[in-house]
Amino acid sequence: MDTVTISRAEYEALLAAREDLADIQAYDRAVSEAGEGLPARYMDRLLDGDAPLAVFRDWRGLSQSALARTSGVNRVQIADIEAGRKTGSVATLAKLADALSVTVDDLI
Q1: Which residues 6+ apart lie within 8 Å of 83 measured at CB?
Q2: Enclosing H/E stretch for 56
Q3: Nearest to 98 by CA among 58, 65, 56
Q4: Burial class of 9 by CB neighbour count within 10 A (0 to 12, 13 to 18, 19+)
Q5: Count H helices, E strands: the chain?
Q6: Out of 16, 22, 60, 85, which residue is the most buried by the measure of CB atoms under 10 Å away?
Q7: pLDDT confidence of 33, banded at 50, 70, 90?
């Protein structure tokens, strides 16, 4: 078995470089797999408890009426889901998700 002796400072620098490399690799994977990212101001709204449908609709620059036309879902249903009065059926959420180019999970 061959051994190599290095100083503590060199050893710690190697450990830090290995950690930096792992971070860079994780970032590269996230960028290549994630696709489109949600801007921070919209993510903050989700974290603050705003209705996901309203947040994603605003992010896409759509009014409730425009989303209704695009998705085929009644505007009143959209308003009710955004206000928390209704949850929307799976079929309704699928239409809305498709129109917004998000997943149904994003809207729940």
Answers
A1: 51
A2: helix 52-59
A3: 56
A4: exposed
A5: 7, 0
A6: 60
A7: low
Domains with residue ranges and CATH for the chain: 40-107 (1.10.260.40)
Q: What is the mean pLDDT of the chain?
A: 91
Q: Kindly state the average pLDDT of the residues 61-81.
A: 96
Identify the residue whose tokens are 């947040």.
55
Distance between CA atoms of residues 21 and 25, nearest Å: 6
In terms of residues, how long is the chain? 108
What's the rounded Cα separation, in Å, for the pair 95 and 98? Answer: 5
Distance of CA 71 to the CA centre of its chain: 21
What's the pTM value of the predicted model, to 2 decimals?
A: 0.67
In terms of Cβ atoms closer than 10 Å to its own Cβ (0-12, 13-18, 19+), residue 93 is buried
Q: Minimal CA–CA distance to 72: which of 32, 35, 36, 100?
A: 100
